[in-house]
Amino acid sequence: MMHIPCVNLTDSYTIHGIRKESMVDGICETACTIAFEEESGLLGNSSKVKCQFINNEDEQEKSNFERFAEEAQEALNPFSLQLDGHRVCKNLLEHDEICRKWEDLLPVIQSKYSGEWVEEQLQAVTKRIYDKDNLYLSLCHHFMFSEWLMSDIFNIDFIDNHGTREWVEYLFDTTIIFRQDCFLEKRNDKQILVIDGTANMEPNDMQAKELWVNYEIEERLPICLEQHTEWKGDDLSRLPESIRSLYIMKIQGKSVKTIETELKFQ
Questions:
Q1: What pLDDT, in 10s, does the model give residues 107-140?
Q2: CA 28 centroid distance within chain
């Protein structure tokens, strides 16, 4: 039995991420960049990561919505997450500082933007920021953190470069238990981890009922979810080159929704 060893990352790095959601009525795309800096504990393993959202500074004109979102996001910049020995998020640190920054930002944002929609959004953001557990879960469910700091590839037991496990993923707005087949291989001097997961939900599953409501699916139909993820790099115990994932929701063998994510590391 073998594992991918978890090694402390001593150099700061950035991740560029893109997430695409597609349904029969179109595609929604989200992109962001986050800077990461990890700190070591007494045993030399990563114990904390400082994160900062980096706004797009291109010359294109930004909408009021984009500017509003970026300014509200500054309450989080930077924020820190506690990590366990496998570099997995365990806690949001320095929550009081985030609340203080939001208290300073709120009147500034209110002086720039007005209207019923703005007030509703500010109330929602305020509620989320002051609720530490809710804010922490929201960050963990963000596609970049979910793919990078929640998947825990260092906890896979490999025998002859193959392993299986049951693993919880958050996607399609709910938690899904996947049965994953994991394959570790070499391609052109690159180390590749392939994870193929499936989740078959019968009509009496609570997750199936949530998906019926969220995506207006005809009730009593079983739902099949499929996952294909690839981690690629020279050494996956260190910084990978990329992580790509594709999640597919199928009803009676027909694809009704997909979520595709790609992270690139620098």
A1: 999 998 888 998 999 999 999 999 999 999 999 9
A2: 16
What is the pTM for the complete model shown?
0.90
pLDDT digits (tens, 9 = 90+) for 137-176: 999 999 999 999 999 999 999 999 999 999 999 988 888 8
DSSP the chain: -B-PPP----S-EEEEEEEEEEETTEEEEEEEEEEEEEEE-TTSSEEEEEEEEE----SSPPPHHHHHHHHHHGGGSSEEEEE-TTS-EEEEE-HHHHHHHHHHHHHHHHHH--SHHHHHHHHHHHHHHH-HHHHHHHHHHSHHHHHHHSS-GGG--BBTTEEEEEEEEEETTEEEEEEEEEEEEEETTEEEEEEEEEEEE-TT-HHHHHHHHHTTPPTT--EEEEEEEEEEES-TTS--SEEEEEEEEEETTEEEEEEEEEEEE-
